[in-house]
Amino acid sequence: xxxxxxxxxxxxxxxxxxxxxxxxxxxxxxxxxxxxxxxxxxxxxxxxxxxxxxxxxxxxxxxxxxxxxxxxxxxxxxxxxxxxxxxxxxxxxxxxxxxxxxxxxxxxxxxxxxxxxxxxxxxxxxxxxxxxxxxxxxxxxxxxxxxxxxx
Length: 151
Ligand SMILES: Nc1ncnc2c1ncn2[C@@H]1O[C@H](COP(=O)(O)OP(=O)(O)OP(=O)(O)O)[C@@H](O)[C@H]1O
Ligand SMILES: [Mg+2]
Fold this sequence. Notes:
Blueprint lengths: L7 E8 L4 H13 L6 H22 L7 E9 L2 E8 L7 H4 L16 H8 L2 E7 L3 E9 L4 H4 L1
Helix pairs in contact: 1-2, 2-4
The chain binds adenosine-5'-triphosphate (ATP) and magnesium ion.
């Protein structure tokens, strides 16, 4: 048992390459489609996956393609929990990193909005990080059954 009994779990691991971002987005969208999300919900989930994976690649690994990015998705009832992890450099000051518009790479067309987007699009959002060891983002969202709208 892995503490997720009752949940329907999927996990992915892939190289830290920007071309895998689209793969991650589509794979998570395909998995979550069994909850029958609305188009808006699906777009939100794809956006947060993109933001989190991009962060692992450009910040966690500083664009080193030899790193690995991991994603797990767990469906439990109407809830989807997503974790996105890297074993890269970690974040020194999480509170600061979570501020809207904060970016440590202002020179690289980053707007510092990734964490703010994740926090706003999801119901729950947590960052766990250790300098030199890596970062895990855990996010949860309730997918209201579309069926309810038609009944
Ligand atoms: N996986 C990670 N590993 C190390 N540092 C991270 C990671 N994710 C985020 N950070 C740090 O947190 C900061 C804020 O992240 P956020 O996604 O909000 O903005 P950004 O990536 O800089 O810009 P944007 O997402 O708008 O392109 C980053 O600039 C970086 O310093
Ligand atoms: Mg970002």
